[in-house]
UniProtKB/TrEMBL annotation:
Residues 143-343 form the Glutamate/phenylalanine/leucine/valine/L-tryptophan dehydrogenase C-terminal domain. CDD domains: NAD_bind_Leu_Phe_Val_DH (cd01075). It comes from the Bacteria. Belongs to the Glu/Leu/Phe/Val dehydrogenases family. Keywords: NAD, Oxidoreductase. This is Glu/Leu/Phe/Val dehydrogenase dimerization domain-containing protein. Pfam families: ELFV_dehydrog (PF00208), ELFV_dehydrog_N (PF02812).
């Protein structure tokens, strides 16, 4: 077996904790990538992995991603991630959650957890009965992070317009939004208010059509939205949508949206540069949500949260400037900046 330290996703993680509670059947992995900037913060994912090693890869990879995201969001937080390895029936009992909460508590605040795929708000509340190291709870203020993410993405889209189109006056700028849920729908409202022309798509076609009617835009099919006749495309639904094929079809001058992990394999940033398309690295532009969720780390109020979100455009601009100066892609530059911030 390859030594743990030699696994491709191991990136000098400070601590990786294997949690096993035989009585409840809990198996979990808590990965602490970095505490350089503050407690390692990141969600708990409850997922059935056919191979447990895939859960390990997720914990290692996603915790590093959280280090980068929290650093680039300017937060006093490091990066961590927990994975609860569910059985094929996805059995989740109060006893398992209690055992997991004890494990989080045992780390003494080095790891702060939050909601992620497979965990409900009620699950997070139940964890919080046994440990205080839970962020994003209903009573902590902020509520749904979607609106905060949407505002940050709107500011990022404006920054992209300024750099790629030469103006951040959104009047008449055509923006194609893929997915008009919490983030994409909120973004559409800000853009409509600013006078942009909206091209909306959602797999729930009625949802896109209703919003287009309300805000005065048009709706198109989900297949057509990325290649729409637009100035800016804003992916706000799924990840991995920027592929060789989809990038070849993009007519817009910039891609700036809230979806996580937009580059299909991570290397498509180069294809965007080659086509002269400006790219806003996803974890930089969509940081509004995590900025709000992690508010209790330093007891930040709404004014401070909004001030942090207001800095997203400057961070994007710094990324684009360094990209232009060095020839590295925006995604590579963002990772490098994050690495510098966490002392790596
Ligand atoms: P949501 O579920 O509220 O909205 C997603 C929308 O996308 C839905 O309306 C859905 O019907 C639509 N959709 C799904 N597949 C689609 C497809 N193939 N084509 C077009 N539309 C499709 O989710 P959300 O909270 O708005 O999140 C959207 C994206 O932003 C996700 O990638 C999420 O990980 C990311 N994100 C969200 C937040 C947040 O605070 N909510 C923060 C950071 C990143």
């Amino acid at each position: 077996m390859t030594a743990f330290w030699n696994q491709p996703d191991f990136d000098d993680h400070e601590q990786v904790v294997f949690v096993r509670d035989a009585a409840s059947g809990l198996s979990a992995i808590i990965a602490i990538h970095s505490t350089h900037l503050g407690p390692a913060a990141g969600g708990t994912r409850f997922w059935h992995y056919v191979e447990p090693s895939a859960g390990m890869r997720d914990a290692l990879r996603l915790s590093r991603g959280m280090s980068y995201k929290n650093a680039m969001a300017g937060l006093p937080a490091g990066g961590g991630k927990a994975v609860i390895l569910a059985d094929s029936n996805r059995t989740k009992t109060p006893e398992m959650l209690a055992a997991f909460a004890r494990a989080v508590d045992g780390l003494g605040g080095q790891y702060i957890t939050a909601q992620d795929v497979g965990m409900s708000e009620a699950d997070m509340v139940s964890l919080s009965q046994r440990t205080t190291h839970v962020a994003g709870l209903p009573g902590q203020g902020g509520g749904d992070p979607g609106p905060y993410t949407a505002r940050g993405v709107y500011l990022g889209v404006k920054a992209a317009a300024k750099r790629a189109l030469g103006t951040d006056d959104m009047k008449g700028v055509r923006v194609a939004i893929q997915g008009v849920g919490s983030v994409g729908g909120g973004l559409a409202r800000y853009l409509a208010e600013a006078g942009a022309e909206l091209i909306l798509a959602d797999i729930d076609a009625a949802r896109a059509a209703a919003l287009a009617e309300e805000l005065g835009g048009i709706s198109v099919s989900t297949e057509a939205v990325l290649s729409a006749d637009a100035d800016i495309v804003s992916p706000c639904a799924l990840g991995a949508i920027l592929t060789e094929e989809s990038i070849a079809s993009i007519k817009a001058k910039a891609v700036a949206g809230g979806a996580n992990n937009q580059l299909a394999t991570g290397s498509e940033g180069r294809l965007l540069v080659d086509r002269g398309i400006l790219y806003a690295p996803d974890y930089v532009i969509n940081a509004g949500g995590i900025i709000s969720v992690l508010r209790h780390i330093d007891s930040a109020g709404d004014d401070e949260i909004n001030a942090r979100i207001d800095r997203i455009p400057d961070r994007l601009e710094a990324v684009w400037q360094e990209s232009a100066a060095t020839g590295a892609t925006p995604a590579e530059v963002a990772d490098r900046m994050a690495q510098r911030l966490i002392g790596r």
